[in-house]
Amino acid sequence: MGIRQSGFTIVELLIVVVVIGVLAAIVVVAYNGVTSSSRDAARIATLKQLQKAIEAYYAKNGYYPRISHGLGTESTCGSQTENWGHCDRLKELTDAIAPFAKFDPEQLSQATQGNYYYSYDSQSDDNYQTYGLMVYLEGNGGANDGGYYSNGYEVGQNPAYCMATYSGTGRDWLNTPNLWHQRCGGGN
After folding, report:
1. Which segments of the chain have a pLDDT < 50?
2. Which of 66, 102, 120, 170 is deepest in the core (most CB within 10 A)?
3. Confidence (pLDDT) at 81
4. Euclidean distance between CA atoms 155 and 135, whole angstroms
5. Which DSSP letter does residue 71 get?
6. Domain ranges for the chain
7. What ranges make up the beta strands (E) of the chain?
């Protein structure tokens, strides 16, 4: 009588390896989703702090910070040579609201946030009585916030005004080409 050897066949081992691989992929995808959501939650929390400081500025001065089209799309702050000084306008915003809250403009810009930067806009057509504030998100957390951008979280009167008043690209309150002095492409 021979000794029978026990062990796993190649097929059984391959099945185990495949199952472990599938489980590992599921864990990685779930982890990435959680970290993306947490980064978006932190961005929204910062945006709400900015909003409170902007509202405090209004309560003191009777108008919102006078900054048109303040995008954070520069790679550095302090240079008027990049993107028409948008990051410099974020510095103007953070300087204006400094008595109410401290922010580093570079931390709101593309310099540190990549494609998930902050944008602010207030216009002279209504004597700076309205504003829009937005941060781009990795997820679609802004899809139902009442504003134009589904990939951004928007607050302030301008996003809601433009969305309710106009249609199509006229609802875009921030990036309207050649209309930097208006709240939305549809007009006012």
Report:
1. 80-84
2. 120
3. 44
4. 9
5. E
6. 11-171
7. 70-71, 118-121, 132-136, 152-155
